[in-house]
TrEMBL record:
InterPro entries: Tscrpt_reg_HTH_GntR, WH-like_DNA-bd_sf, WH_DNA-bd_sf. Gene3D superfamilies: Winged helix-like DNA-binding domain superfamily/Winged helix DNA-binding domain. This is GntR family transcriptional regulator. Residues 12-80 form the HTH gntR-type domain. The keyword Ion transport does not apply. Signal peptide: none annotated. SUPFAM superfamilies: Winged helix' DNA-binding domain.
Length: 129
């Protein structure tokens, strides 16, 4: 079962919230290959968002290879190429780290302190939000 929570106070656009939550559920294995996603119209109605918003989320997920749409049958979780997904993950992490490194330099945080912070967070010494 698909589980999406939309935050009206988030700065993240709604279509990205939908896309990212579906992507996370696919990567976590909650939504498995062949799982039939709700139609764009049904999901839009359930989430109380526009059809255009859910359509954009589905289009981006399809471009990234996470879902496939079969005309007249529906939209399904794709057979994921784990190597490709891993590469996409590395690219996203690298992009996020660029911003973090830039911020660390602005605040004068040295590399060792930054690495210690990342290590502490990665090991789960405190909850991630």
């Amino acid at each position: 079962m698909i589980n999406i929570v939309i935050s009206q106070t988030s700065t993240e656009p709604i279509y990205e919230q939908i896309k990212n939550q579906i992507k996370q559920q696919i990567l976590a294995g909650t939504l498995k290959k062949g799982y039939a996603l709700p139609s764009i119209r049904v999901l839009a109605k359930e989430l109380n968002v526009s059809v255009i918003t859910t359509k954009r989320a589905y289009e981006e997920l399809e471009k990234e290879g996470f879902i496939v749409t079969v005309p007249a049958r529906g939209t399904f979780v794709a057979d994921i190429d784990r190597e490709k997904v891993s590469e996409l993950g590395i690219q996203e992490i690298e992009n996020d780290l660029k911003g973090i490194v830039k911020k660390a330099k602005i605040f004068g945080v040295d590399l060792q302190r930054l690495l210690e912070t990342i290590e502490r967070l990665y090991k789960g010494d405190e909850p991630l939000k």
